[in-house]
Amino acid sequence: LALVPAGAFAGVSLAFRPQPAPGLGPGDSAPAIAVADPRAGATLLTAIAADLGRRLRPGEPPAIAGLAPLDATAIPTSATERAVLLAAEAAALAEAAGLVLLIPFASRQEAEGRAGALDLALRRAMMSAAALAQEQAAPASALWRALGEARSRLSLDLSETVGRLPSVRRLEPPARGSALLLAQHLVGDDPSAVIAFAADIVARNRLRHPAILGADPVEVLL
Fold first, then answer.
1. Tens-place pLDDT, residues 96-107
2. Model confidence pTM above 0.85
3. What is the DSSP secondary-structure string of the chain?
């Protein structure tokens, strides 16, 4: 397990985390703040973990569509190799979970979908840890507990966020309706709120023109 540094994926995670504003120096000497994207970082780390995981569990599909089939030489044959891969998978998943908690989700469905996919990955890794316990009891037990703690922390911390988020709902559009009319019906007469809500309807439903909703149900964020 020493082959996997404790902070193997911490640097990747840090690159996608929001950073505190730097102290302001004289004139224009203050450094620019890098744009952080915890959503992209969580996606990257989850994909790395999935690639590591399918080496332990070859039957799992690749995280990235079109990825080449797994070469037989990439599948570990010894308990030590499996322990090292599992430790790396667990480290990547832990960093991904930390980033997921920083994502500014727009809806409950988005947050629940992301959390559900990550929870499934954590449970699969825990199954590998349980299977490894017969050959590598101490490290397998430690990894199993760490993965379980990551699952609990993700569930507890994200539940508060999910409770405050609006939900995506599907509505039958009015006959000859437009995005602006639907937005006004749902959010009132405040022009700025109506325009913003109508823009979200257009983007969320990929409408060709905001004046035509069409006949299919429309997704709105309420």
1. 999 999 999 989
2. no
3. -TTS-TTTTHHHHHHTS--PPPPP-STT-SPPPPPP-HHHHHHHHHHHHHHHHHHHSTTSPPSSTTPPPPPGGGS--SHHHHHHHHHHHHHHHHHHHHHHTT---SSHHHHHHHHHHHHHHHHHHHHHHHHHTTT-HHHHHHHHHHHHHHHHHHHHHHHHHHHHS--EEEEPPPTT--HHHHHHHHH-S-HHHHHHHHHHHHHHHT-S-TT---SS-EEEE-
